[in-house]
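#random but structural
TW: two for the price of one
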Amino acid sequence: MIPDIYYHVYNRGAHKADIFLDGSDYVRMLKLLYIANNDAPFIMEQLPDNIFGVKRNRILVDIVAYCLMPNHIHIVLKKRLQIESSAVDSIARFIHKLATGYTVYFNNKYGHSGTIWQGSYKEKIVYDGLYIQTLIKYVHLNPRSLINPDMSKPSCDKNDAETNEFVMKYEYSSIKDYNGIIRPQRSILNVSELLPFQVG
């Protein structure tokens, strides 16, 4: 039996600069995580506000988990088998649409020009079924550094109650979906992919 292959995709702002400056920036990226994940072109301004209900064309990747941080993003995903033979890698196509869509939005909103990303996205392949659980936990725990940027990992671990409460309420990751909270953003994920890793 061929093991599942997951990919940890991540990137950060150029020179470690913030790429999300207010709540509406995070919301824009959440919408892009959903709508950029298909092989059809789109124009955001022509789409309805409830974008998470828009019917998409052929899906490029199965998103398993994600977290948006002020200056970087993490996405855990799988390739879609039916487009493995495509001339263009499905992950590269998805990330290109995602990053370009957000860059255009950011540059228009803030009068910026050029790229906002620190080079190409990074990608780590994960074959180990046990490690993928650790990776999803790591991605979801990222926001704990926002409580105190100087907080070391051991210090975070000692402040479990405070950090867990903050992380569980964090709006810009998929942790709420893993905890069974029904919300529109849930449609970003392939729910059948997250079920084996879901809490409870």
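TW: number two ↓
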Amino acid sequence: MSCTQLAIIDNHRLFRTLLKDTLQQDERVEIIYCSGSGIDFLKHYPVLKPAISIVSMGLADITCPELAKRVASCTYACPIIGMNHTNGIEENQAAQEAGIINIINATDGLSDLFDAIDYIREQPVRAVNCSEESTYTVRPNRRTREHLSSRELTVLRYLADGYTSREIADELHIAEKTVGTHRHRIKTKTGTKNTPELIIHAVRNGLIK
């Protein structure tokens, strides 16, 4: 697996420093930019051209959805992972509407972040003609919606067995709100609206047996 160049934009200085130091220890990634300002990132973006950007949902100088829209309007548009420090559902919805496919809670494990990075890396990047220019962006296809991380598949299996979010959290030794985030992500990727619909979809498409 080749090295992936990442940009980190988070106005929590301690968090972004720790995240940068931790990610740099992994040979799969290279941190090429780290800042607390979304506006400064946009100024440098045309030159940086990161493969993936990790952006805080709570930036002080620009909202994450607005930053995502500006990146998407560039000739080169990289995928963005939203970093949610508050677990706000409204923030997640606004980010998804802006084209951010992956949303990670700051309380999630590092493995969840790498799942999101690997998930994005596996998606094809297509050229889309806009007037006389070509904009590069990731377009979700059926495979994109069906691709679940190992943790998401585990949560899905527990749901199929009738476990509640509290019971799943106890089994996996994670916070109940983290289970809620996984459930939201699973439904988003599979295009389902509730748990019964999700289970039927999962069985029909071989996600669970």
